[in-house]
Amino acid sequence: MNQPVVTTYPVTDGVGQALETTLRGVDELLPQEEWTRKLARSEATGVPLRVKLGLDPTAPDIHIGHTVVLNKMRQLQDLGHQVIFLIGDFTTLIGDPSGRNSTRPPLTAEQIKVNAETYYRQAAMVLDPARTEVRYNSEWCDQLGARGMIELSAKYTVARMMERDDFHKRFHGGQSISLHEFLYPLLQGYDSVALKADLELGGTDQKFNLLMGRHLQQEYGQEPQCVLTMPLLVGLDGVEKMSKSKNNYIGITEDANTMFAKVLSISDTLMWDWYTLLSFKSLAEIAALKAEVAGGRNPKDAKVMLAKEITARFHSAAAADAAEQDFINRSKGGVPDEIPEVQLSGAPLGIGALLKQANLAPSTSEANRLIDGGGVRIDGAVVSDRGLKIDAGTWVVQVGKRKFARVTLS
């Protein structure tokens, strides 16, 4: 049988720089040699590579940890490649079993539709919408039908499917695995066939699914995609991955002041990892800034720059400047220019009840805990007495560093 002719293109300095950009902050790039050849071919022929990211709209919003992979997409987009934002509206009906020890409850079609619209609006804060191809995998998955699904299932073995870590653990732990869960990695892989992807991105927990795409493309006679996995962003606590359940996250829809202050709260060490994964500054710029800090520049300067960049991305440059000034005012004990106005009655009112009714504490018991910790101030004075009664009047009430309200009590 005649072997296909493989054309070799030169690996120029431009290809080397594109490879460096690709490798920035990644966990794995497999196989790197193939991706280098693809980059060289693209540069020589002027044909952009097709870069795919699939996201299942399982929740209505995302935090900045989710944007790590989106940032990588933007970097590749800026290199001139075609990025494809794939919304897994069909695969969400199955539920991705990655990293799970039980079957994921499927969402309704209506929930998926609402979440998908929100996902793309938020992703467009990172990607350039004018240069982003948006697709839904129901386009081809709905058309597979029973015959197509059987033919697809024939291209992978049960033995290899059981090599997947979460399936292996659940099987040997006596936990159930539904047959439909085997379809998920097959369909995610088939997405790469339908889109003729050159590269697919995902988190480290997606490696099995990404490699499935390579396998199926070969089965269907296509050039196999390369796969790129990104690490999971460490959260505000500096220990655990960013997660809403760990309360160590920054939501990309949070207000500018909160977002700015949260970025400033991370450690000086973690800041450099965030620069690599979240900043659009070049590696050379980051290295120069790091050298300045090592040479004696205050690390807070670098952290403020990062906080303003992230805040401006999801709000505006003006909002980032205002958030910086708000943070300075608060650090000096000042009151922000705009705080909620609250009207309450029942004077004299106990401080615990006042905090709860003003939405500054979720409960009276939490209010008491905040008072015991010295986190409550009225007109700048720390409140230490749980039994304090507040008389009629207007008071500026502060809880922690960021919660304020101007309370008028009658």
UniProtKB/TrEMBL annotation:
PROSITE patterns: AA_TRNA_LIGASE_I (PS00178), S4 (PS50889)
Enzyme category, top tier: ligase
Family assignment from sequence similarity: Belongs to the class-I aminoacyl-tRNA synthetase family. TyrS type 2 subfamily.
A Gene Ontology BP annotation from the UniProt entry: tyrosyl-tRNA aminoacylation
Name this protein carries in UniProt: Tyrosine--tRNA ligase
Self-association state and partner proteins as the record states: Homodimer.
RNA-binding S4 domain location: 354-395
Domain of life: Bacteria
Motif ('HIGH' region): 57-66
Keywords, alphabetical: Aminoacyl-tRNA synthetase, ATP-binding, Cytoplasm, Ligase, Nucleotide-binding, Protein biosynthesis, RNA-binding
HAMAP family: Tyr_tRNA_synth_type2 (MF_02007)
Chain segments annotated as transmembrane: none
Enzyme Commission (EC) number: 6.1.1.1
Reaction it catalyzes: tRNA(Tyr) + L-tyrosine + ATP = L-tyrosyl-tRNA(Tyr) + AMP + diphosphate + H(+)
NCBIfam families listed in its UniProt record: tyrS
UniProt: ATP binding residues: K244
GO cellular component, one term: cytosol
Motif 'KMSKS' region: positions: 241-245
Species this protein is from: Comamonas antarctica
Localisation per UniProt entry: Cytoplasm
